[in-house]
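Running low. Invent one:
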Amino acid sequence: MKFNKLRLVGFKSFVEPTEFIIERGLTGVVGPNGCGKSNLVEALRWVMGENSYKNMRASGMDDVIFSGSGNRPARNTAEVGLHLDNSDRTAPAAFNDADEIQVTRRIERENGSVYRINGKEARAKDVQLLFADASTGARSPSMVGQGRIGELIQAKPQARRQLLEEAAGISGLHSRRHEAELRLRAAEGNLERLDDVLAQLESQIESLKRQARQANRFKMLSADIRAREALLLHIRWVQAKEAEGEAESALNQATMVVAEKAQAQMDAAKNQAVAGLKLPELREEEAKAGATLQRLQIARGQLEEEANRLLKRRDELSRRLVQLGEDIRREEQLAAENTTFLQRLDQEEAELQEIVADAGAEAEELKAAFDAATKSLAASEKLFADLTAERAEAAAGRNQLERLIRDLGDRRGRLERQLADADAELAAIDGKLAGLDDPQEKREAAEAAEIAVEDAAIAVEDAEAALASARSQEHEARAPVEAARSALNALETEARTIGRMLAAGATPGEFTAVAEMIRVDRGFEAALGAALGDDLESPVDRSAPTYWSLNGSPADDPALPEGVEPLDAHVTAPPELLRALGQIGIIADADAPKLMALLKPGQRLVTREGAVYRWDGHVTGSEAPGAAALRLSQKNRLSELEAEIDEARIVLSESEAEMTHAAARTAAHERQLGEARDRARLAARQLADAREALTAAERASADLMRRRDVVAEAVHQLNAQIEDLGVQEENAHVELEDAPDLSDLDNRLREQQMVVATDRGYLAEARARFEGLSRETEARRRRLSAIAQERASWTTRAASAASHIESLREREEEARDEIIELEAAPEEFDEKRRTLVNELQKAEEVRREATDRLVEAEKRQREVDRVAATALSELAEAREKRGRAEERLVSAAEKRHETEERIREALGVPPHEVLRVAGQKPDAAMPDIRDIERELDRLRMERERLGAVNLRAEEEQKELSDKLEILLRERADVIDAIRKLRGAIQSLNREGRERLIAAFDVVNTQFQRLFTHLFNGGTAELQLIESDDPLEAGLEILARPPGKKPQTMTLLSGGEQALTAMALIFAVFLTNPAPICVLDEVDAPLDDHNVERYCNLMDEMAASTETRFIIITHNPITMARMNRLFGVTMAEQGVSQLVSVDLQTAELMREAS
């Protein structure tokens, strides 16, 4: 790949679109300090994937966007594009189809960057790998920025190794190895999680097995409960049927009692009806008397109301007479006003009719003038339209012919150029066909490679089978190791716990308790602790406050009862305790009462459980062991654990040795498999290369033949089209000469346009006069109509006022007559009032007598009603008893029905088949229902004690077992993936070492040559130090300038260091030339003489490699040696601009002039 062009928009100080052309040779960039030269280098590094804003000299990545100046606002985006020439097809396979690769990076403020390769979005990693595979990149040693020489001089040997990696072309290899290591760690993490999941699944499967056993027990209990419930339901059903029969008998008896009580109630009701026949007549008489009295009272009230009403009516009529007088006067005044207004309307109507009669003749004259102007304008406009259409048609025809002639000329030129290109392409295709490879040779090479791949695949399968067997053996050997390690850990943990307990319980102070000096057989600790108790805490040191001492001889002590074993036979203790232990016997609990009576003074018996029987009859029960007994038991257990730990360690060491041997065999087989796979990969690569060469040869030949046919057909068609175009162009010229002249038509059109304008003015003037007169006449006619309507309205109003006045006078006369009649009414009302008072007194006496007769009859009726009510109450009580009997019958029937429903719901059988479900014979005696209920409660409690039962435990166990098998297969796949990743990492490391060592030899040779060239003598060499692994070693530089002794880089002078570092950088270029090299003010520390050497070396590098050099400099000597110069200026503050000049072309032009 070759770098062709760098395009910047809005990047730092380059706000305007700027293109930086990169061509072969030396390209210089010059300009004053701070004008933006280094921004070009940073743009190049940024588009190649630089992600550190610090390396961009910024506080954040958004700072690379133009931040504004005094005259320009800030930008929100920045974009840098890099154009690469891929005509030699050296790009990675994913981008190798295009002749040119365009890599762009665009950043938007606060939204991050977006990479695109040939217009498609890509990851930053893809861009970095693209340039890394081309031995360049944002941080490549070929990008020598300001201070880079100093960094290389001061760098540690490990950092200098990056130069060798660039020379070896393994920068991309490191990235791929890092990716493989990340995948390896992720796979190992997945393996650990799988192991955890597998352990959880195994635990869940064991739990489900227990749940399945519990579910089976649950089902058995449920079956027993179902049988007991069936028997209980059958007994309750039989009892419900018996209760229903008893309730039916009680209902029949209650029905008979109700019939008797009903007869008695009917007799009482008959007597009540006879007594009640007289009451309505008496009540009617009393009601009539009351009604007569009330009617008279109402009449008296109405009479009083009528008198009051007449008085009010007289007052109202007086007020109405006054109002009617006022209304008559108002109507007479309105009638007089109507007459005056009607006279004014008659006068206005006469004036308007006279004006309308005079306007008729004038309107006819204006209408005639308007019609004449309209006809004249229509005729002139029609003539103008005809002339316009004729002119447009003639112009369109001429324009169409001229456009056709131009189009035909352009098409013929294009076709002639296409014909020339097609002829040249035919010649090129014939040349390519002559130089193609023979496909048959490529086919034979591919067949040979296929045979090699098959042999390598067989070898890999054999190695994988051997490795699988070794891994299986290693896995089998790992289980005993884990078991032995777990057992050892458990024993050591128990021993440490007991040791800490013993240490915590040790008696404080300077005296050692006798319990620490005693050894007791296993199982006798409780007996010894119970027998001696707190005495075991006493020491044997005489200086202690309490202690054990020697006192007499044990021979003088009395012997224990016959058959009793002394405790000292199981205890190893100091001699001070021998007499005490000799007087303590070990017995069983059953023998204690018999032997206790045989004890001598001071003797005691003790059981192994800790019960103590003294000679004086005191007995101590065996409860929890004492502290001393516990310490003795712990000491014994600690001794046993020490022996067990030694045995466990021996077993663990043997198991680990076996596992180590198995692991070594596995590692050996893995190495063999890795070698076999390396050979298989090599054979596969060779096969792929052979197939690709064969495909390329066949495709190239076929493509060229198809392309030749297509181009030949295109040549034939182009010739035919060119001939057709010549004929069409000649015909168009003839038609253009015959087309009419447009000047005469234009003159006639202008004259007619003036006529139309004059007619339009006449018409507008006539229309204005005619329409104005019409509007005035119409307004006068509307006013005449309004006057007629107003006259009719006022006439109607006058007639209505006269009739209204007459009506008001009639109503006034009627009111006066009615007032005269009302003045005579009070005397008649006084006579009527006296008559009503007499009638009211007589009516009150009649009502009093009727009321007395009614009260006596009602008293007799109440007695008869009481008797009837008693009979009715007894009947109701009998009916209530019958209702309760019916309810008992219904309840019994419902209970029976409910029992039958429960039988059907719970057992799913009819009631008469319940005994079969319960397992009982029909003629067998039924057990007590309380026993059945107790047994049923017991079974239910037992089932409830099972707790929550998983009835799907067996199904879940099977599902988890299947899942476990799947996970085991996945675990095997993960292990295989880990093995492959490890193999891939080893392969990458091996390839990297080989390429790095080979590159080191070449770089060292080139460095020695360049050092001698730059220093005009002297020697130098490179050394790998600090590690035997080339991938981890550091790079040290030993130099001996002319006349000096050998020394390291840091001991040289500044100029010598700069030249030495340049020699190393250029040695890397000669080993693995990068497509581009940027040198930012590298010549700054050199004098003029060394600058000449530096420039000579640049010329040599540019001539011997394809590397394109971009050199930023302030040195005029360096500027003079450039092939072309770009100048960066900042005419506007904060905005950089780029100008260029080709020095070689300028020199040739000067020589020519």
